Amino acid sequence: MRKLYLLLAIVGLVLPHYFFISFLIVNGLDLQLFSSQLFANNISTFFVVDLVITAIVFWTFLYQEAQRWQMGNWWVYIVATVGNWSLLCLAVVSVLS
Question: Is the pTM value of this prediction over 0.90?
Fold first, then answer.
């Protein structure tokens, strides 16, 4: 199972970033275009909202388990999640402003 999880983690890192880097190569860091494409239709908005809710559920679970198991440095997982979401947050801010 470890090898399977490692493979899935690598695919989960490489595949989404392939599309993001392709966008950056073609358009540069155009946050307005990024956010307009991110929320272009109901399906893409569905995925964004679903991902945000999933992250919030994960953070809640993480906090509870970290307290239960007295985990040290549990906040690193939140930082890693937010680090991947920083551009998404900037896009959302640009849409709202």
Answer: no
